[in-house]
Design a protein that fits this description.
5-stranded mixed beta sheet; about 50% strand
């Protein structure tokens, strides 16, 4: 039998590794953003994210460089990376 894998623990470990790598690289932007509905998110909309952003319903940020996943994923300026979701608005 294969051992059981806890998906939440795996995600925490992956996000932790991404966060640590970006902090060690000297990034000035937060490495992770979690949002339910803007403005109910960790960092305000005016913040640029370098790393990963997860929007459960709607989250917004100024710039995003990395991975963006959620239902509605607006970015007011630039995106560099991958966006996965139903709606995206960004300048590429």
């Amino acid at each position: 039998m294969y051992p059981r894998v806890n998906g939440n623990a795996v995600m925490r470990n992956v996000l932790g590794l991404i966060s640590a790598a970006l902090v060690l690289a000297g990034c000035q932007s937060p490495p992770v953003q979690l949002a339910l509905l803007n403005p109910v998110q960790i960092f305000p909309e005016s913040t640029s994210i370098r790393g990963a952003r997860l929007n459960l319903l709607y989250g917004a940020n100024e710039n995003l460089y990395g991975v963006d996943a959620g239902l509605i994923n607006p970015v007011t300026d630039e995106v560099g990376g991958i966006q996965l979701g139903a709606y995206h608005s960004a300048i590429y």
